[in-house]
Amino acid sequence: MPVLDSIRERFQNERPLDGLRVAACLHVTTETANLMKTLKAGGAEAVVCASNPLSTQDDVAASLVVDEKIGVFAINGEDTETYYKHIDAALDMQPTITMDDGADLVSRLHSEEANPALLEQVVAGTEETTTGVIRLKSMATEGVLKYPIIAVNDARTKHFFDNRYGTGQSTLDGIIRATNLLIAGTTVVVAGYGWCGRGVANRARGLGANVIVTEVIPLKALEAVMDGFRVLPMQKAVQEAGLVITLTGDIHVLRQEHFKAMKDGAIIANSGHFNVEIDIPALEKLSVDKGKARPYVEVYTLGDGKKLYLIGEGRLVNLAAAEGHPASVMDMSFANQALCLEYIAQNRDNLENRVYDVPESIDETVAQLKLEAFGIEIDTLTAEQEKYLNSWEMGT
Predict the structure, then answer these.
(1) Would the annotation count 215 as a binding residue?
(2) Given its phi and psi angles, is residue 351 left (phi above 0), alpha (psi -120 to 50 degrees) or beta?
(3) Does 192 count as an annotated binding residue?
(4) 77: annotated binding-site residue?
(5) Local confidence band at 346 (pLDDT 50, 70, 90 cut-offs)
(6) With helix as H, strand as E and coil as C, how does the chain read?
(7) Where along the chain is NAD(+) bound (predicted)?
(8) I need a surface site. Which of 251, 272, 297, 302 has the fewest CB within 10 A?
């Protein structure tokens, strides 16, 4: 992660985060460990809890505690009760900044059960994922958001790369590791054509899949058609599917009527943030038997004898059954996180209780540092070209 390494080196010298207490709710992986080390180098006191019960790499968690003296509250496979106890434990450090991947810390701090004194300590936060940004913008619109948030997910150096290339590759990586499925020749239904969905659709096509996209937004459906994909309603699409992948951020994208229409042997996976995209209670209600087909794969036998296979309990398949995004793409995402914390430290008194975009200067800095890490040089505008672009008189 060369971009994050360069930021950590500067942070070590400048200590821009001195005095900040950071509670992070992220996937506890090697990439997150590098981010936590960078925050510590910058002077922050940091703790981290898991943003998904199945994504924690226990050896990484142990290393952060033992080697880096960074507090970690996460165990792979933890139940729901433990998951929320760990979130509360992270908040017990009385953070001045929250760093979320799904708005769990923000939601907890704004809940009726929360200690109001904790909320008063927080000056700002960041949000890593699309689902979290949607929730936080809703809170801001309703006037209930109590502190400012920077939407790291919306940085171009985040969602253009992390969501498209990271999710695109790691989702299929998780599915292949869990099932050993041959993607070539398989009819793959991709639910949602946002940046994550188009990443998966394009990577699946590159592996030889016959890809069908489902959408509810006309513009995105039109983009999928123009990109060369078939677009169908879900009820029709699942009848052809060998593999269905949800990436919408919404609830019950796959429901009872869809399970009934699926072919025997169809595989179901989710790469949206929460495990609500697949209506698992409805699937269990339709089933007469449930068993373990192989690690990370459960087989549901429906009343008519048809078998459907669910990967990773319907949670993020790239983290439940694999290792998440490659470090190279997380390098940019977490560089944005580190630089946004520095921005908060410098501008905390001028921020209002709303959701902010990542400053353009940070986005451009991350892009330039990544190019340098790749050893790539680009052109610059000449004085004549700059004048032309800024003039309404030239060019006639």
Answers:
(1) yes
(2) beta
(3) no
(4) no
(5) very high
(6) CHHHHHHHHHHHHHCCCCCCEEEEEECCCHHHHHHHHHHHHCCCEEEEEECCCCCCCHHHHHHHHHHHCCEEECCCCCCHHHHHHHHHHHHCCCCCEEEECCCHHHHHHHCCCCCHHHHHHCCEEEECCHHHHHHHHHHHHCCCCCCCEEEHHHCHHHHHHHHHHHHHHHHHHHHHHHHCCCCCCCEEEEECCCHHHHHHHHHHHHCCCEEEEECCCHHHHHHHHHCCCEECCHHHHCCCCCEEEECCCCCCCECHHHHHHCCCCCEEEECCCCCCCECHHHHHHHEEEEEEEECCEEEEEECCCCEEEEEHHHCEHHHHCCCCCCHHHHHHHHHHHHHHHHHHHHHHHHCCCCEEECCHHHHHHHHHHHHHHHCCCCCCCCHHHHHHHCCCCCCC
(7) 129-131, 194-199, 215, 271-273, 318, 325
(8) 251
**Virtual CA dihedral for 104, 198, 276, 249, nearest 10 degrees?**
50
User: How far, in Å, CA of 392 to CA of 79, rounded?
Assistant: 62
29 is in an annotated binding site: yes
158 is in an annotated binding site: yes
Q: Is 45 annotated as a binding residue?
A: no
Overall pTM > 0.85: yes
Distance CA 22, CA 13 (A): 19
Cα dihedral 22, 361, 34, 354 in deg (nearest 10): 30
pLDDT band at 254 (very low <50, low <70, confident <90, very high): very high
Given a contact cutoff of 8 angstroms between Cβ atoms, the answer to whether 66 and 4 are in contact is no
* 367, two tokens: 């892009």
Tens-digit pLDDT profile for residues 165-214: 999 999 999 999 999 999 999 999 999 999 999 999 999 999 999 999 99
Cβ neighbors of 23 (< 8 A, separation 6 or more) are 46, 47, 48, 49, 90, 91, 93, 95, 97, 98, 99, 105
- pLDDT digit string, tens, across residues 109-152: 999 888 889 999 999 999 999 889 999 999 999 999 999 999 99
Q: Is 392 annotated as a binding residue?
A: no
